[in-house]
From TrEMBL:
TM region positions: none
Name of the molecule in the record: threonine-phosphate decarboxylase
Species name: Marininema halotolerans
Known function: Decarboxylates L-threonine-O-3-phosphate to yield (R)-1-amino-2-propanol O-2-phosphate, the precursor for the linkage between the nucleotide loop and the corrin ring in cobalamin.
Superkingdom of this protein's organism: Bacteria
Length: 397
């Protein structure tokens, strides 16, 4: 009973960040009043070209974008994507967010054993559990330098039917060396394991395409690459993602999707997003500046042991300082939530505990606000400790 109570008292009640509605119930605030560092969405978006296309689609006279079914085969979007990522259309799978494809891949493979790194994005194991598969964890935590050991990786690939690698991984924000992915994809092909490399955040890296197996996907017939268009283009409410894989796999997984799973507005938004000219450069510039700003500010805080992350979110290890209730991740999430700031308590990720939180990189104003609120929390903590010490001294004399 206690476990159940705890399970509903947390901000991540539905398993993810980006849920100001649940936070609103817990912290007695309107959902719109939170600054959300718990979901990793580009604050520069959505791009103006995308917004224009969406406005046109809902106001069109004659054939309104809303009053007809979307193209069930995503034809125009597939064509645009094929040009953009330079693969033929038969290699493309379009989904209602990468999340739909994570579910679709798992249902298609019908695995008995699913390989998940610890830590990793929670949907991989959630989908495995829905299929009643056994989850086999590959350690990739602090002890391993957040990268699995090569021998362990190979053994793990051969031991499962479906394996997931995050590139960059969520919540660490770290990429895997390309040589490492290549080994994984080759071993997967040898053993017939379906390997999914989740590249949902790879577009935040300026030379991301050079760090992907995508240009060589034909060499790896059991590997699927997943991309999301909801993070970089800031369209999580619209939902859009895609996969790249050998056409047989694409057909099999597509057959598992519900009809029209990608709505008409998302199809048009996706097409428009692919031809935005300055948006990517502006995003990369913002990210470089703001990540450095946040890293600098965070390093100066007593609460924080270390910070890592190469993309638009940072994994933070908190110190177990006096005055902080355990687990520190929950304590800090609570203190910031009361101040209208949402962060991700990362203790729910396999392989992590209550020392870890994850925050997104946001605008300068929001990042600066987060830092001042963290400083204020530290100051309150210091004052509280001074009080405790004085009382002790007073009691002794
Ligand atoms: C690593 C990773 N993959 C996939 C997804 C799902 O993304 P989408 O919004 O495209 O469904 C997320 C969402 O947070 C994620 O973190």
């Amino acid at each position: 009973m206690k476990g159940k109570q705890e399970a509903i008292d947390i901000v991540e009640r539905y398993g993810h960040g980006g849920d100001p509605w649940t936070a609103g119930e817990l912290f007695q605030r309107e959902a719109r009043d939170f600054i959300d560092f718990s979901a990793n969405i580009n604050p520069l978006g959505p791009p103006t070209e995308v917004l224009r296309v969406l406005q046109e689609a809902v106001t069109e006279v004659g054939v309104p974008g809303l009053a007809r079914y979307p193209d069930p085969a995503n034809r125009a979007l597939k064509k645009a994507l094929a040009e953009s990522v330079n693969v033929s259309e038969s290699f493309l799978l379009i989904g209602n967010g990468a999340a739909e494809l994570i579910d679709g891949v798992t249902r298609y493979v019908q695995p008995r054993k699913v390989g998940v790194t610890a830590p990793a994005f929670l949907e991989y194991e959630r989908c495995a559990c829905k299929e009643k598969a056994e989850v086999i964890y590959l350690p990739a935590g602090e002890k391993e330098g957040f990268l699995p050991e090569e021998a362990a990786l190979i053994e793990w690939i051969h031991a499962v039917d479906l394996a997931w690698l995050g590139h960059p991984n969520n919540p660490t924000g770290l990429l895997m060396p390309l040589s490492f992915l290549e080994i994984a994809a080759k071993e997967a092909a040898k053993s017939g394991t379906i390997l999914v490399v989740d590249e949902a955040f790879l577009d935040f890296i300026p030379d991301g395409e050079r760090r992907s197996l995508l240009p060589r996907i034909k060499e790896f017939p059991t590997t699927i690459l997943l991309r999301s268009m909801t993070k970089f283009y800031a369209l999580p409410g619209l939902r859009l993602g895609f996969g790249v894989a050998e056409p047989g796999l694409v057909e099999g997984i597509s057959a598992m999707q519900v009809p029209w799973s990608v709505n008409g507005l998302a199809q048009r938004a996706g097409e428009a997003a692919l031809v935005t000219s300055d948006f990517a450069n502006a995003t990369w510039k913002w990210l470089q500046e703001e990540r450095s700003f946040l890293l600098e500010g965070l390093k100066g805080l007593l609460l924080i042991e270390w910070v890592i992350g190469a993309v638009n979110y940072l994994l933070i290890k908190l110190k177990d300082s006096p005055g902080i209730q355990s687990p520190p991740s929950r304590w800090l999430q609570q203190r910031l939530g009361e101040r209208g700031i949402l962060i991700r308590d990362a203790s729910g990720y396999p392989g992590l505990d209550g020392s870890y939180i994850r925050i997104a990189v946001r605008s300068r104003e929001e990042n600066a606000y987060l830092l001042t609120q963290l400083q204020a929390i530290e100051e309150e903590l210091q004052k509280g400790l001074e009080g405790v010490d004085r009382c002790k001294e007073g009691g002794g004399t």
